[in-house]
Specification:
Strand content: 15-25%
Strand order of the largest sheet: 7-8-6-5-4-3-2-1-9
Number of strands: 15
CATH superfamily of the largest domain: Aldolase class I
Helix content: 40-55%
Number of helices: 15
Radius of gyration: 21 Å
Largest sheet: 9 strands, mixed
Order of helices and strands: EHEHEHEHHEHEHHEEHEEEHEHEHHEEHH
Length: 376
């Protein structure tokens, strides 16, 4: 089973932390949708009849699309791609886009999962991030989606924000729990180049949160969500009743996926492909039927390293038999040697032929993954 990712590159405003490709120029929206449909149609042979288990509208801000535009895209996929009966169809949405009318009309689509970009329930934090919504809109959008009958809702939260106290973060987590959603994604703020927050950091306008406080926020997140019945199935992702993000889970399990739209990525086990991160160049290439992407052929070393970074992040971990069956013995020997000290320190656990991060290991996961990378 494979997945489809659709990148909608339009945002009404640019958030200060975001480094995803986006544009605030809606003048090209009609041309973009026309080009996107052509790409979806052109590439339908690439899966060789393999069925689609998930469709994910990401961005950008996919909720700026009209309901009719969403349905047109889904109809095109319906006619060209084989799909699972219980396919998961996710729409990323900003709270201020989820009006009563939008949610009512959403029932005319096959969208069955919403990923709502809440980010915070603190108005000061939302303003500092240049989010368009306030905390009341965030809460109302989630409740409105529930009242409209959406039964699978995920919300995003960010911690490690400048000047964010432990009490601030606890209030966010408690509010998220109280809203009774099925899924929570919580990410530590990263200062990416070419973002406003990065420029603020370099100029001294803001300071990074101390590591100790960030760690305390992460520990609080783990403890409170566990107590509330959420399972941590990936470092930053938590679900109730196994309502995992099927689409993201497929990424971590290294299943095939096609990415449509500017900057979207695709993967077929042997190659990685990415579309040009420019709406103008994407439109020109589609119009002239020239190449709009680059492809990298993955070496066995690349595939091993991909397996390390994707699998160790999850509760399913790294499979000893999978290593043996899919990689040269030198990779397995290297892994076992590197993993030994973390097994001794109990940052890794080994059971049933699977290596997993322990709770302690979660706190130093980046360091562990770095040392498990094979570099010649």
């Amino acid at each position: 089973m494979a997945g489809i990712y659709i990148h909608i590159p339009f945002c009404k405003t640019k958030c200060h932390y975001c480094d995803f490709y986006k544009s605030t120029d809606f003048g090209a929206k009609t041309d973009f949708l026309s080009a996107l449909k052509k790409e979806i149609d052109w590439r339908k042979h690439e899966l060789d009849g393999e069925s689609i288990a998930s469709i994910y509208f990401g961005g950008g801000t996919p909720s700026v699309l009209k309901i009719d535009e969403i349905n047109e895209i889904l109809h095109l996929i319906d006619t060209g791609y084989q799909q699972e009966e219980d396919i998961e169809v996710t729409l990323e949405a900003n709270p201020d886009d989820l009006t009563e009318l939008f949610l009512d009309r959403l029932n005319t689509t096959r969208i069955n999962r919403l990923s709502i970009g809440t980010q915070s329930f603190n108005d000061h934090d939302l303003k500092s991030m240049n989010r368009r919504h306030n905390s009341r809109q965030a809460i109302n959008s989630i409740k409105g989606a529930q009242q409209a009958g959406v039964q699978n809702i995920s919300i995003d939260l960010i911690y490690g924000l400048p000047n964010q106290t432990l009490a601030d973060w606890e209030t966010n987590v408690e509010q998220a729990i109280a809203l009774d959603v099925q899924h929570i994604s919580a990410y530590h703020l990263t200062y990416h180049e070419d973002t406003v927050f990065y420029d603020y950091l370099k100029s001294g306008k803001i300071k990074e949160l101390p590591d100790e406080l960030s760690l305390d926020q992460f520990k609080l997140l783990l403890n409170r969500l566990k107590s509330a019945g959420f399972e941590q199935y990936e470092i930053s992702n938590f679900a109730r009743n196994e309502c995992y993000s099927r689409h993201n889970k497929a990424y971590w399990e290294r299943k095939k996926y096609l990415g449509f739209g500017p900057s979207a990525h695709s993967f077929d086990h042997k190659t990685r492909r990415w579309n040009v991160s420019s709406l103008r160049k994407y439109l020109q290439a589609i119009e002239s039927k020239t190449s709009f992407s680059e492809t990298e052929i993955l070496s066995e070393q690349d595939q091993y390293n991909d397996y390390m970074i994707t699998s160790l992040r999850t509760k399913w971990g790294i499979s000893g038999p999978y290593l043996k069956e899919n990689f040269d013995p030198k990779f397995r020997r290297f892994f076992q040697k590197q993993a030994e000290k973390y097994l001794t320190s109990k940052h890794l656990r080994y059971a049933d032929d699977v290596y997993r991060l322990s709770t302690e290991g979660l706190f130093i996961s980046d360091k562990i993954m770095e040392e498990l990378f094979f570099i010649e």
